[in-house]
Amino acid sequence: AQTVTQSQPEMSVQEAETVTLSCTYDTSESDYYLFWYKQPPSRQMILVIRQEAYKQQNATENRFSVNFQKAAKSFSLKISDSQLGDAAMYFCAYRSGDTGTASKLTFGTGTRLQVTL
Amino acid sequence: NAGVMQNPRHLVRRRGQEARLRCSPMKGHSHVYWYRQLPEEGLKFMVYLQKENIIDESGMPKERFSAEFPKEGPSILRIQQVVRGDSAAYFCASSRGSGGLGEQYFGPGTRLTVT
C-alpha cells in the first residue's frame, strides 16, 4: 500500500518570502501522480499543482513549484513571494497511474502554513 | 461549468439517526469518490463509484455505511445509526475517468455533527 508522509505539522513564513513544504511517499509503482492540495479555513480542497511521475521536469504554477526527486521519493512544494492568502493547510497526495485500478487519492497528514506580516 | 455540488453543507443528527449526504459530480464526470476528514486530520478515502457500480469500497467501515451512484441523480453516502465518532467533514470528488483522466475535483464538503 502507498503511504504519504508530511513531517512538518506547522510552518511559518513572512509575507513575500519563500517557504518549502516537505513530502515523502512510498510506493512500488512506476506510474503515478503526485499532488499538492490547499485547504483554507473554508475547508474547500483546492488543487495547487500536480506532477506526473514519468516527467522529469518539475511542475510549476505561477508562484508554486515542486522539487520532484523520484529516486528519493520526495515531492516538496515551494511557495515563492508568499501572500496572506496562502495561509492554509497543505496536503500532499498520491494517486496510482494504473488505469486498471481504482484511482483513489492517498493523503498525507497535512502542513499548516502561517503567513505573517 | 458548475463544480462538484454537495448538500447539505452542514448536517446535525442525534445519535441513532440516519445521515444522507448527496454529491452531484461535475458535468461530464462519471467517477465519484468519497473521503472523510476527521478533526485535525487528513482526508481518508472511503469509496469509489462509477454509475451504478461500486469499484472500490476498501475504505468504508464494514457496518452502518453505504454508498450508491444511481444511473440518474446524485451519489448518496448513507450512514445509519450515527454515533459521535461519525462527526467529520465528508468530501466528494469527481473525475472524468481514471489513470490520466483521473484528475479529481472536490466539492465543498458536508460537515456532519452528531449530538
- Tell me the number of strands of chain B: 11
The chain-level mean pLDDT of chain A equals 93
The residue fraction in helices of chain A comes out at under 10%
* Number of helical stretches of at least 4 residues of chain A: 0
Query: From the helix content, strand content and strand pairing of chain A, which structural class follows?
Result: mainly beta
Cα gyration radius of chain B (Å) = 13 Å
Q: What is the tally of helical segments of chain B?
A: 0
Proportion of residues in β-strands of chain A: over 45%
- Rg from Cα of chain A: 14 Å
Termini separation of chain A (Å)?
41 Å
Give me the strand/helix succession of chain A: EEEEEEEEEEEE
* Overall pLDDT level of chain B: 92
Q: How does the major sheet of chain B shape up? A: 7 strands, mixed
State the helicity of chain B in percent bands.
under 10%
The backbone outline of chain A, from C-alpha atoms, is globular
**Major sheet characteristics of chain A:** 6 strands, mixed
- Globally, the shape of chain B reads globular
Category from helices, strands and their pairing of chain B: mainly beta
Unreliable sequence segments of chain A: none
| Cα distance spanning the termini of chain B | 37 Å
What this model shows, in words?
The complex is a heterodimer of chains A (117) and B (115). Chain A is mainly beta. Chain A has no helices and 12 strands. In chain A, strands 2, 5, 6, 10, 11 and 12 form a 6-stranded mixed beta sheet that branches. A 4-stranded antiparallel beta sheet of chain A has the order 3-9-8-7, with no helix packed on it. In chain A, a hairpin with a 2-residue loop joins β7 and β8 (64-69). Chain A is globular. Chain B is mainly beta. Chain B has strands at residues 5-7, 10-13, 19-24, 31-37, 43-50, 53-56, 65-68, 75-79, 88-95, 105-106, 110-114. In chain B, strands 2, 4, 5, 6, 9, 10 and 11 form a 7-stranded mixed beta sheet that branches. Chain B has a 4-stranded antiparallel beta sheet with strand order 1-3-8-7, with no helix packed on it. In chain B, a hairpin with a 6-residue loop joins β7 (65-68) and β8. The relative contact order of chain B is 0.33. The mean pLDDT of chain B is 92.
